[in-house]
Amino acid sequence: REIQDEELRKFSSRITSLLQNHDLGIETIDCLQRLFLIVSATKYDRKLDSKFVELLQTALCLPKCPEQVQALCAAILREMSPSNYIVLSCDEIQDAKLLSLVSSILLAQGNKKAEVLAVGQRVVKVLEGRLPESQSSRHLLPLLSKIISLSPASLTEDQTNLVNKRMVDWLRYASVQQGIAQPSGGFFSNPRARQPGPITEVDGAVATDFFTVLSIGQYYTEDQWLNMQAFSMLRKWLLCYGDGANSPHSDDRSEVDGSVMSMVSATSTSSRLLPPKERLREKAFEYCQRLIEQSNRRALKKPDGDLQKACLIEAVTIMDIICRQDASYVYRTLSCLKILHGRISGDHSYARALLPIAQFFLNHSETAAVDSEAIYRHLFTRIPAQLFHSPMLAFEFIQFCRDNVRFFTENLSLFRQSFPNLFKTTAWNSEFRDLLPALLGADTAIEIFHFLLDLPCLTAALDVQLRSASTPISERAAWDPAAKPASCLEAFPHPLYPSTFQYLLRTESAPRDSPERLAPLRQLLGSMASCPRVVQCADTVPVLLQLYFGVVKEFADGPLINQLVLVLLERSEQLYELPAFKADVHRVLSSQLVLLCKLHPSLIVELSKELLEFSGTVSNIRNKEGIFTSVVWAIGEYMSVSYDKRCTVEQINKFFEALEAMLFEITQLRPSASIPKYSPRVITVLMTTLTKLASRSQDLIPRMSLFLSKMRAFVQSPAMASVYSEEDSEEILTRATELMNLLKMPSVAQFVLTPPAEVASPRFHRDTNVSLPLAMKTASRLLERGTGFVPG
C-alpha cells in the first residue's frame, strides 16, 4: 500500500522487459504475484501504463503460455477492471481454459449487455462442440452460472435446450469408477496401482447406483467433476429456465386429478421422449431422490457428514422448485419428505434441513390436501427453544418466517402463539424487527410488551440454560438444594426458581400468567448485566419498543390503551438492572405515553385513580422523571370537559390537591437539610398543569396565584441558588410570572390554557410535552405593559 507510483512504474518496466523477452519462468511468476498483491491491496485504483496492460493481454493469449502466468495476468487485469485499456475478445477463442480467463475479465468490466451476451454466446458455442481430450468443459460452468445471474435473457431457447441436454448427461451419466491418479513417473511405477476402483458411498459401501456429489472417490474423472458442478448450479438454472409454462402436463383439468394423471404418465413414459426442459426436470428429481437416500447413510468422516447435510438442504429446495414448476411431482415428493421429516426431526444436527421441508409443505400442502400443522408446530416450538444459539440456523429461521409471514398471520394461529419462542432468537441474536408487527394483535399486545421489557433478562436466562446444560453432573451434584443459590448457574435447577425460569423460557403464549413472578429472577440475573450479549440485547429493546407502539396504535381501542398505560406505569419500575437500559426505556416510554394519551384522551378520566396515585408519589420524580413529567402534562392537557364529558370538578380538585402537594414538596425550603435537585422542566410542567386545572375550577385560582407568587422567593433563596444555575432559575421564574399574569384574567386563562378544538389545532408554537400556545405569552406581555392594553 505504501508503494508510490514512481516505484510501481519502475517495477512494471521490469516485468515489461521479462514479458517482451518471452521469459515466462519463475522470476516472471514471482514479479506478477507481487504486482497482483500491489494492485489488489488497496481500494484506490493503481494506474498501469496502457502499453503494459496491452502486454499483459498479449501474454495471456500466448499459445504456449504457462498456466500460472496466464492465471496471474488474468487476475491483474480483473483487478484493474473496468478499464478502457482492455481490448480482449472471446469470439475466436477455442481453448476452454483461456476462454474462462478472458471471459472473467470481460464480465468484470461491468454489467454491459453486449459483453455478457458475447460471452454467453461463445460459452454455449464451445459447449455445443466436442472439446479435445486435453480440454475440459468444467472451466466454463462457473461462467455460465455468472451469465445467467447477470442476464438470463442472453441465451436463446435453442441454447437453453442444448444446456438442458448437457446437464442431463452430466447429472445422470457420470462414470461410477474412480479416476486414475496422475503417474508420478519412475522405473518402479506399478501399472496395477493405477487401475481405477469403484466409487463408494459415504459409509464406505460400494456404490450401486449412479454418481452424485455425495459419491466418494480418491480421484475423480472429468465427467464426475462436471456432475458436481452441474448440481451446484442446478437450482439457479431451474429458477431461470425451468418454468412450467410449456409443460405438457399443464392443462385445464383440476389440480388434484391433473397431478395424479401426470404422475402416472411421468412414471410410465420413457424420460427420453420428454422435451429437454422436462427431461432435465425428471433427472434432477431423480438426482435429489438419490441424495436423500445417500443422506441416510452414516458418514465415516465428519466433513462427509457436513456435506450430507448441505446436499440434503439443496436437494429438498430443488425438489420444491420442481414441484412449483410441475405439479405432477408433488405426490412423489410428499411421501419422500414425510419419511425424511420423521427421520431427521429428532436430530438437531439436521435442524437446518427442516426449513426447506417446511417450505415445501407450505407451498404444496393445499394442492395435496395434506394437514401440515404438526410440521409447523415442531418447527416453531422445538427449534428456537433448543437451537437459538446457532447463528446460521437463527438467520435462516428468521428469513423463513419473514418470507412466509403473510401466510402465517392469515392461516396459522400457532405462529402468534409461539412468539415467546421466536423472541429467543431476538434475545440471543438481536434480529427480529421485521417479524414483530406480524406477531402483534389485540390478544398478544400486552404479553409482548412485557416480553420486550424482559428481553435482557431472557438473554441472561438463555445463557444460564446453556451453561447449565454443559455443567458436569459431578459438579451439579455438589450443589445443596436446601441452601440459597450462590450464583445464577446454581439457581437454574434450584427448587426456589424452576417455575420462574420455566415461565420466562416458555415456548408458547401464556396471557393469564402474571409477569410479576419474574421480579426475584430479575434481581438474581442482575449479576449478568455486564455480559456482552445481554448488553447487546438491551441496546435493541428501545428500537423494538418504538416499532411496537407504532404498530399497536393502528389497532388499539380504548380498553387496550387503558390496559397498556397501566402496564407501562407498573413496568417502568420493574426493569432489568442495567442503568443505560433503564434510561433508554424510560425515554421511549415517556414519549409513547404522550402519544397514547393523544390517541385516547378519555383515559385520564377512566384511570384517574391510578394516575392520581402515580403522580402523588415523590419517588417517581427521582426514579423516572420523564414518565412522571409526561403523566403530569397529560393530566393538565386532557383532564377537561372538552375531552370527556364525564370529567367533574371533584376530579379536577383531587388532581390539583395531589399535584400542589407534590410541587410544594419539591420546592419547600429546608435550610438544615441537603436539598435534592429536581429539573426545572418538572417544576415548570407542574406549575403549568396546576394553572390549567385552576382555570377549569375557578375556585382554585386565588390559591394557585398565591402559590405562584411565592415562586420568586423560592428561586431567589440562597439555598436554591446553590442548586440551580442562573438559566434554570430564570426559566422557572419566567414561567411562574407568565402563569400568574394569565390567571389575572380567568376567562382569557381558560381560553389560552384550554382552547376549543378549532383553536387548538393550528397552534403556532408547541413543544411535545411542556409548552403553551403562543397566546399565553402574548397575554402575559399585554399585562406587563399595563392594564390599558387589556380589554375590559
UniProtKB/TrEMBL annotation:
Pfam families per UniProt: SPG48, TPR_AP5Z1, TPR_AP5Z1_C
Domain AP-5 complex subunit zeta-1 ARM repeats positions: 307-424
Every AP-5 complex subunit zeta-1 C-terminal TPR domain range: 431-782
Domain AP-5 complex subunit zeta-1 N-terminal TPR: 1-266
GO-annotated cellular components: AP-5 adaptor complex
Protein name, per record: Adaptor related protein complex 5 subunit zeta 1
Encoding gene, per UniProt annotation: AP5Z1
